[in-house]
Write a structure and sequence with these properties.
heterodimer, A: 173 residues, alpha+beta, Alpha-D-Glucose-1,6-Bisphosphate, Chain A, domain 4, 4 helices, 29% helix, 37% strand, disordered N terminus, B: 125 residues, mainly alpha, Arc Repressor Mutant, subunit A
Chain lengths: 173, 125
């Protein structure tokens, strides 16, 4: 059998990071993230119906959901759990899929990665929980990684450049 | 033809919001993640009302967003004027942000339910 893809080997140096602080204890945030009935209460986008088909919380297990768009189209999303350390760490591979359960081409741009390795860390301080989510492409081709890196660089540069330019502009003004 | 996405009034608001060093420091702080108003105020020797005033200016300029929670309305950078990400990255980001908004709402409901129960139990005693 071919060697399994190893995240550590394939990790590019760019990642997408989200941080959010929830006004709730970590145990509760963890439950909301890992129990099917609780997940059903919040997972998904506004204005769209999200139905959870499966939540099997164990390494190799899957979380499968269907999003129905306003125009009636349906999109299947899937996580495959990689690492579960309750209540502090959840590592999943996240992708859009079809009925076969396999990742499909990135619906936005085929040159972009199909799968994202997403690491969520939950930390608690004074009754509040910080959730830090880091996302990197996985099982991507060299070309897809390059496209992603360019995009990530563009986002960061665009942001920093805007601040730099404004700083310069304001120094002169 | 070039499409004009940003009105000059919006640009004015953005630039004047950024003309203040405290407001720029607030944006720099928010670039590393969202936070509460009191946490934002900590490094500045400023009263809460003064910080709130700065936040209102930034919000009007579309540079930051406030959470909807009444007592603890976290501030975060708004994607609009400063970011220029592609549709996918933008969608990906919004997907998580929105899911987190809903999670926030859900957790708040849970908390309120728990408090109501506590009150009821308290009365029984």
């Amino acid at each position: 059998m071919a060697a399994r893809n190893n995240a550590a080997v394939n990790l590019p140096d760019r990642e997408i990071v989200f941080t959010r602080v929830f006004n709730a204890p970590r145990e509760l945030v963890w439950k909301a993230f890992t129990e099917r009935d609780r997940m059903a209460k919040w997972w998904g986008l506004k204005g769209m119906t999200t139905q959870i088909r499966e939540l099997d919380l164990r390494p190799g297990g899957t979380f499968l959901y269907v999003v129905r768009m306003p125009d009636g189209r349906e999109m299947l999303g899937k996580w495959v759990y990689r690492e579960i350390v309750a209540p502090e760490l959840l590592v999943v591979v996240h992708f859009t899929t079809d009925d076969t359960g396999k990742p499909i081409t990135n619906p936005y741009d085929p040159s972009l990665p199909r799968e994202m390795l997403t690491t969520s860390r939950f930390t608690e301080r004074a009754g509040r929980t910080t959730l830090e989510l880091r996302s990197v492409p996985i099982n991507e081709t060299a070309a897809q990684r390059e496209a992603f890196n360019k995009l990530a660089d563009g986002m960061e540069e665009g942001f920093n450049n805007s601040l730099d330019l404004l700083d310069e502009y304001l120094a002169k003004a | 033809m070039v499409q004009q996405h940003t009105s000059s009034a919006q640009l004015d608001a953005t630039f004047s919001a950024l003309a203040d060093p405290t407001r720029r420091a607030i944006l720099a702080r928010l670039a590393s993640g969202e936070t509460s108003v009191s946490e934002l105020a900590e490094p500045f020797e400023m009263s809460m009302p003064a910080i709130s005033k700065h936040l209102k200016v930034l919000q009007r300029a579309g540079l930051i967003e406030r959470g909807r929670e009444a007592q603890w309305r976290p501030c975060r950078l708004a994607a609009g004027p400063l970011k220029d990400a592609s549709d996918w990255l933008d969608h990906y980001r919004r997907f998580w942000e929105e899911a987190f908004d809903r999670l926030e709402d859900y957790l708040r409901e849970l908390k309120q339910d728990a408090q109501t129960k506590e009150k009821k139990n308290g009365r029984k005693k």
